[in-house]
Write a structure and sequence with these properties.
Layout: H1 2-11, H2 13-21, H3 25-48, H4 54-77, H5 83-105, H6 114-131, H7 140-164
Helix pairs in contact: 1-3, 1-4, 2-3, 2-4, 3-4, 4-5, 4-6, 5-7, 6-7
Length: about 170
């Protein structure tokens, strides 16, 4: 059940994109919020039913990346986010994925850490506030501050993650 919810999170990206390109930010907001809450729900269900698996951990992280990065790309195209932020997010996620792949080849799985969780939360908060622009006006200075906070958490979490798992980078 938890893995199904993670897959559902990825598929909810489709209506988010359609709604954004139809200038229905409020409707896109509610679909995005449901998808974001499913991130908590799938983990809760997996823990409560004693169904936490390595596959589930990977699918959950991929679902987060697909939802967040794709929504950011839509918002870059719609002139709501700077492209350099998405480049930083993709760079970080690529480096973390490379680290995980190398670790898996060595026989171990690397769990997410608190820095990665802070990064995900900051990204979701920024996206929710941008999507809520028709409900709650987001003043440009606040938006810029949030963009920088997301950038800092994204880069910092990537650096910490790679440093903590540097043993996988053997020459």
């Amino acid at each position: 059940m938890a893995n199904f919810i993670s897959f559902l999170r990825m598929f909810l990206l489709v209506p988010v994109g359609i709604l954004l390109y139809n200038n229905s930010y409020t409707a896109a907001l509610w679909v995005f919020v449901v998808a974001a809450l499913s991130d908590w729900l799938d983990g809760f269900i997996a823990r409560k039913t004693n169904a936490v698996t390595e596959t589930g951990k990977v699918i959950d992280q991929i679902a987060d990346k697909v939802l967040i990065t794709s929504t950011m790309i839509f918002l870059v195209d719609l002139k709501q986010l700077p492209v350099w932020l998405v480049v930083a997010v993709v760079w970080r996620d690529t480096m973390v994925s490379a680290t995980r792949i190398l670790a898996a080849k060595m026989g171990f799985i690397i769990a997410a850490n608190m820095f990665g969780k802070a990064k995900t939360v900051s990204q979701m908060v920024l996206l929710i506030l941008i999507l809520a622009k028709d409900i709650i006006p987001l003043y440009e200075p606040v938006k810029i501050l949030l963009i920088w906070i997301v950038f800092i958490f994204t880069v910092l979490s990537g650096i910490v993650y790679i440093y903590q798992n540097r043993r996988v980078f053997t020459i």
